[in-house]
Amino acid sequence: MKKLVIGLLALFVLAACSGGSATIVGTWNLVSYGSTSSPAPAAPGVDTSIEFGSDGKLNGNVGCNQFNGDYKVDGDTITFGAVVSTLKFCEGPVGDQEAATLALFNESAAFVIDGDTLTITSADGNSVIVLARK
Questions:
Q1: Averaged over 84-109, what is the pLDDT?
Q2: Phi/psi at 117 (nearest 5 deg)?
Q3: Which band of pLDDT confidence, cut at 50, 70 and 90, is reported for residue 21?
Q4: Per-residue pLDDT for 48 more than 80?
C-alpha cells in the first residue's frame, strides 16, 4: 500500500510539472516587432514561421529569407548562437521585420510566455518581437 501511495504521488507531481509549464519549444508566427515603446505590426499577408526545436535548434522565415541557428534557454533568458540566413534582398515592411527579428537573434534576450504569446526583448530593453503560437 505504501508503495502504491508513493507511486501515485510521484505520478501526480510529474503530471503537474509537465502539464502546467509553458515552453518556448514549438512553432510561432510573428505578430509585431521593433521598439518596445511602439512595436510595428507584422506585414499583412506575409506567412511567417519561427520554430524553436526541443534540440536547441532554431529555424524559420519571417517573410523573405530562411534562417537557422542554435539557442539555449536559462530561466527567462534565451541566448542565441550564430544564426545564418539566405541572402535575398528584402525591402519595405518585410525587410524591416526580418532585420529586426534577426537582430534580436544575435544576442541574449529576455523572454516571457503568456498563454500562446511569446515576447522576446533585447538585452538593452529597446527592441522587442511578439510571437503567437501556431
A1: 94
A2: -120, 130
A3: low
A4: yes
State the average pLDDT for the chain.
87
Q: Answer yes or no: is pLDDT of 5 > 60.
A: no
In single-letter form, the type of residue at position 17 comes to C
Between 2.40.440.10, 2.40.110.10, 3.30.1240.10, 2.40.128.270, what CATH number should domain 23-133 receive? 2.40.128.270
CA 125 to CA 101: how far, in whole Å? Answer: 14
